[in-house]
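Design review, sub-item: ligand-bound model
Attendees: FS, YL, KQ
YL presented the inputs for the D-malate complex:
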Amino acid sequence: MINPRLDDLHRRIPGLRLETAPAELEYYGRDWTRRWTPAPLAIALPANAGEAQAVVRWAGAHQVAIVPSGGRTGLSGGAVAANGELVLSLSRMNRVLGFDPVDRTLTVEPGITLQAVHEAAAEHGLAYPVDFAARGSCSIGGNIATNAGGIRVLRYGNTREWVTGLKLVAGSGELLDLGRGLVKNSSGYDLRHLAIGSEGTLGVVVEATLKLADPPPPTQVMLLALPSFDVLMQVFAQLRDRLRLEAFEFFTDRALHHVLAHGGQAPFDQVHPYYVVAELAMEGEGDEAAMLAAFEHCMGQGWVSDGVIAQGEAQAAQLWRLREGITESLARHVPYKNDVSVRVSAMPAFLAEAQALLAQGYPQFDVVWFGHIGDGNLHINVLRPDGMDDAQFVAQCEQVTRILAQTLQRHGGSISAEHGIGLVKKAYLPSTRSAAEIEVMRGIRRVLDPYGIMNPGKLFDP
Ligand code: MLT
Ligand code: ZN
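KQ shared the predicted structure:
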């Protein structure tokens, strides 16, 4: 070590793994946003909760900023370390610590991937139902830090619903044991829920106890092509009211265009403005017939221009790939991402207004819409036109986001549905949260992070 501060950290916690090689700083200093140049001081990779706590205590005593780090698949800059911070990577803490068959809970370390949690639950004949495309890379600690949502929220809720216990090393250095797996606990403020979605600004999750669900039912997957967003909402209401929806995801022709540019086969002969991937539970005897009847009803009404019901698992996976491949297919363009929500009932009006404003003011942009209809969550990705330099692009995208924030305010929505505020949306937080609410959040942050070391600069400024 040549840095005296790191020498000191090394002396105080002798077994702690510390990385300072340029390639490691680069790797751990960024997330999927790719907009900031990584410049961390070093990477600390604790092997257990005791080491993680020791690092936080040392950082508090020495006023060193910490960036908690999981799979770094975030899209809001929450895990970016661009200002000499110490990255506290939980990636080595990735074990399943226990399964309780009576409580039906799984206790895990924070660095475990979502996919490994799925697999561990399945080994016990149960399921952890939060799911999204980054499952193989994202970590449960990061999911908790952003209250991650994904493709099954309309059926199972957000991450928040599934965390019954949480061990958090607060910025103060205290280890807080929150929730303790209790189903009922009416004993004052539920600090667990403050930690969930706090984006690493209050502390570091070092252990989580997750509630498990019954194994998923058999399902049918369909892909529908639709002429307008209004009919898409009618189809949603039909399927939701007549059947049991496990997922209802939408994307536009532009999204499909980018996925297919990456490989794969067009699902239909013609291009359509909107597409839906719907997954339906097939539990009861009449479910298959009910699904066909609903499908035929939607066709008969002229709501569905074309459609296919997957014949088997391979085709179902193929249809899902059209939706789940969107993020990856856009990544090489380094899109400017917006992740907004409004009440489900407000979606058609919001989308129509926002689409018109963008088409009028920013015709130069390829704007790609997709998202989670059942949750009122729309992803709006803006792509840089050929020849436009990055600074100009980002400046114009910020204008776009300002317009979206104003439109969201008129429709009572939020500037971040599931990605978090991080760095990307920090300037727009006041469009979603009142000044009084932000002041309360500041107060909470001061109590749990008295030295101001936990992910400074993220969510809001001191
Ligand atoms: C998704 O729904 O695919 C994710 O939130 C990722 C994204 O918005 O790109
Ligand atoms: Zn999403």
